[in-house]
């Protein structure tokens, strides 16, 4: 029998949830993560459990922890061979160790209830284009997920499993989409989940290349069945504290989780603390919910748009809008319970953080210290791709 000292909580990556986006390998400060083009794995001899990789992971695959006997820790080679996490080893010494780690604040968030191997079955209720320009189509898709009791929160994502197989005969890879409505359901109907999906059609060297999952979703009609995995993620959630101001910054379909949060806030019995939305896109014709946002949430949120390709106007990015609205932004950043959400293009991160630093400097705040405190207090939420 082993003593408790022989037990470690080994950091693993769930191959069933991992979408091989490489974010963890890029993020890990100690180079403990590697891949063999099939699986991403954590080297138990190098990983120091700092968890820097946990919140950037879009699926939560990285947030897998197993108590194991030190001498039987899974090697990299073993992990490379996995298609799923193995059954937890049975040893009485392991019983005292909790099987998972995660948010650390004691709250319970349902994650990973359904997997690609055991998906939930949803039905399409509605599928409509929410951008006036057809060649930049973004669809608002409402699914009925009540049959399989698929729970979701604003800020979580769901995995969509497109029908069909790829050229090698393997099932298409799962794709993640942010929940775009309140946990109470689209239009307040329980069990109705909304997604915001951009139909991806690219020109690759003169050839038209269509995104498999986005086109699958945008072509669905009411009544169609869709397989879902998840829900995923616990790092982009709304604070329970309704006095906490929300600063939401997004580009493109990064607006989806912001819509979900606005939807949730609007339904609260008492008004929520100030909410600011900074939304960047090309033109109003190419931006999902452009008019609908103001109509639905304008009373509870201050909404600003930054247009990058509007004819006759100079290019504006969301970070330009942040600089323009420095007064209100600084006031909110100075409050000790403000949450900042950033969702959309990964490329905007640097510009947005630079703008926040400039706003802080202008108002006598120290962004570096603020960013560190917000990160530590889980008030800074970043989901970029
Ligand atoms: P651009 O016109 O330069 O492409 P979409 O998803 O519809 O493409 O919208 C993304 C929006 O984000 C566009 O307005 C795009 O502008 C803008 N964008 C591109 N790069 C950055 C960046 N580095 N920082 C902020 N916004 C960006």
Automatic annotation (TrEMBL):
* Enzyme Commission designation: 1.14.13.208
Q: Could you say which cofactors this protein requires? A: FAD
The segment(s) forming the 4Fe-4S ferredoxin-type domain are 9-38, 40-68
**Domain FAD-binding FR-type as annotated: residue spans:** 117-238
The membrane-spanning stretches of this chain are none
Under catalytic activity, the entry for this protein gives: benzoyl-CoA + NADPH + O2 + H(+) = 2,3-epoxy-2,3-dihydrobenzoyl-CoA + NADP(+) + H2O
What are the entry keywords? Answer: FAD, Flavoprotein, Iron, Iron-sulfur, Metal-binding, NADP, Oxidoreductase
Pfam families under this entry? Answer: FAD_binding_6, Fer4_21, NAD_binding_1
> What InterPro entries is this protein classified in?
4Fe4S_Fe-S-bd (IPR017896), 4Fe4S_Fe_S_CS (IPR017900), Benzoyl_CoA_Oase_BoxA (IPR017634), Cbr1-like_FAD-bd_dom (IPR008333), FAD-bd_FR_type (IPR017927), Flavoprot_Pyr_Nucl_cyt_Rdtase (IPR001709), FNR (IPR015701), FNR_nucleotide-bd (IPR039261)
Q: How does it assemble?
A: Homodimer.
Mind telling me what this protein is named? Benzoyl-CoA oxygenase component A
* Lineage of the organism: Bacteria, Pseudomonadati, Pseudomonadota, Betaproteobacteria, Burkholderiales
């Amino acid at each position: 029998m082993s003593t408790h000292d022989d037990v470690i909580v080994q950091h693993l990556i769930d191959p069933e949830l991992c979408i091989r986006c490489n974010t963890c390998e890029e993020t890990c400060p100690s180079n403990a993560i590697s891949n063999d083009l099939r699986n991403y794995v954590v080297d138990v001899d190098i990983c120091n459990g700092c968890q820097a990789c946990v919140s950037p992971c879009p699926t939560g695959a990285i947030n897998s922890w197993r108590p194991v006997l030190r001498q039987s820790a899974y090697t990299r080679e073993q992990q490379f061979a996995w298609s799923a996490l193995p059954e937890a080893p049975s040893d009485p010494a392991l019983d005292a160790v909790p099987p998972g780690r995660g948010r650390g604040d004691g709250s319970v968030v349902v994650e990973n209830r359904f997997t690609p191997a055991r998906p939930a079955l949803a039905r399409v209720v509605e599928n409509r284009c929410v951008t006036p320009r057809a060649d930049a189509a973004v669809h608002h898709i409402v699914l009925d997920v009540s049959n399989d009791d698929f729970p979701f929160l604003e800020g979580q994502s769901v995995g969509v499993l497109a029908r069909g197989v790829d050229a090698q005969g393997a099932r298409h890879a799962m794709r993640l989409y942010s929940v775009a409505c309140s946990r109470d359901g689209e239009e307040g109907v329980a069990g109705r989940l909304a997604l915001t999906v951009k139909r991806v059609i690219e020109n690759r060297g003169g050839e038209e290349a269509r995104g498999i999952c986005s086109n699958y979703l945008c072509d669905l009609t009411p009544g169609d069945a869709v397989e879902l995995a998840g829900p995923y993620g616990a790092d982009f959630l709304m604070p329970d504290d309704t006095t906490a101001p929300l600063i939401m910054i997004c580009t493109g379909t990064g607006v989806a989780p912001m819509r979900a949060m606005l939807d949730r806030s609007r339904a609260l019995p008492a008004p929520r603390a100030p909410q600011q939305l900074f939304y960047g896109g090309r033109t109003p014709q190419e931006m999902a919910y452009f008019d609908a946002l103001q109509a639905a949430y304008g009373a509870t949120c201050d909404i600003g748009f930054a247009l990058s390709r509007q004819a006759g106007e100079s290019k504006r990015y969301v970070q330009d809008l942040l600089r323009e609205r420095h007064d209100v932004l600084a006031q909110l950043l100075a409050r000790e319970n403000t949450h900042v959400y950033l969702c959309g293009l990964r490329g905007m991160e640097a510009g947005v953080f630079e703008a926040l630093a400039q706003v802080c400097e202008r108002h006598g705040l120290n962004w570096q210290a603020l960013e560190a405190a917000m990160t530590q207090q889980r008030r800074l939420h970043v989901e970029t791709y």
